Amino acid sequence: MSARLVSLLAALWLALTTTLACAQLVERRVDIHSEGIRMSGFVMHPTVKDGTRLPAVILSHGWGGTAALLRPEAERFAQAGYFVLVFDYRGWGDSDGRPVRDEAGKAGAQRDLREVVHPLDQATDIFNAVHWIAGEPLVDMERLGLWGTSFSGGLAAYVAAREPRVRALVAQVAAFGRPVVAMPATTLAQTRASATRRARGEIGHPAPGVREIGNLRGAPIGEAFLRYSPIEDMAMLRGCATLVIDAEREELFDVREHGELAFQRAPEPKKRVVIPGITHYGIYTTARTQAQNLAVDWFDQHLKGAR
Fold first, then answer.
1. Vertex 166: Cα angle to 238 and 150 (nearest 5)
2. Residue 88 DSSP class
């Protein structure tokens, strides 16, 4: 048998086994209600025998992302034996937005608030995703993990620090915020000035999808960031095993003030991995499989053995 034929047969066998493995996954669309706002999501899990309960992982996307972008991670974790929930934050993707009346000078003007970044609202959405998944008969709530990427790595840490049912956390290329005292004086003054004007009805919320920070889609609601600093919460992660994955050539923020400092402050058990040679977005391209494998190994270690 020629080497070429052997390679062809091996490729066909790999494709067949992959297809069969994927066929064993169950997927369905779901709605989650967060403060009365319908969020759209999907769940994915392996087929199981009656009475079996699975460890669960909730995935949350980064700044300006949507649930659809995390399908590769959902499939990887479901194949590894997890019940996986992925959802769109309020006002993003297929989720509904929060009605607001804030167009200055237009009495009664109302629209849905869409494609803005409000960390406290989004953290609340993750909390409600935890509440939702607790009602799933297949889920073992003693074995719950959160996975967040980029901006949502900090959001997942914020939630895990306040939700004792979360037993494992993976935060990859994560931004962990900063306390108010560490903000530049000019930024703080501008943020407070905008907050005052918005509170007095002089300005409204940003338009959907505005790019105010580099090429990131979605403008921040600045005053909400004054009350959001997960880097200050890391010591509260007792009982939650924390994995921090950083990019060696991170260009969006200083990892010494984010991933490195977050790791230092987190209690045991914890682990930090710096993937060499990649920038921030390399975690979604050349290093995607590596990052997925690191996450699966971490969840396997800290969730599959927990009963």
1. 95
2. P
- The SS3 assignment for 82 reads coil
pLDDT digits (tens, 9 = 90+) for 17-43: 344 344 499 999 999 999 999 999 999
Q: Which ranges constitute the DSSP H helices of the chain?
A: 3-23, 71-79, 119-133, 151-160, 185-199, 222-225, 259-265, 288-299
Q: What is the pTM of this model?
A: 0.90
Instruction: Report CA torsion sign: 255, 258, 261, 265.
Output: negative
Low-confidence ranges of the chain (pLDDT < 70): 1-23, 103-108, 306-307
H and E: helices and strands count for the chain: 8, 12
For the record, the structure tokens of 302 come out as: 């800290």
Do residues 36 and 16 touch, judged by C-beta distance below 8 A?
no
| d(C-alpha 231, C-alpha 123), whole Å | 14
247-268 residues labelled b (16+ CB within 10 A) or e (exposed): beebebbebeebbbbbbebbee
Write out the two tokens for 197.
Answer: 């004007």
Cα angle 116, 37, 168; round to 5 = 75
Can you tell me the distance from the alpha carbon of 49 to that of 140, in angstroms, rounded to the nearest whole number?
Answer: 14
Task: Judge contact between 43 and 85, C-beta under 8 A.
Answer: yes
Beta-sheet strands, E only, within 200-298: 219-220, 241-247, 270-275
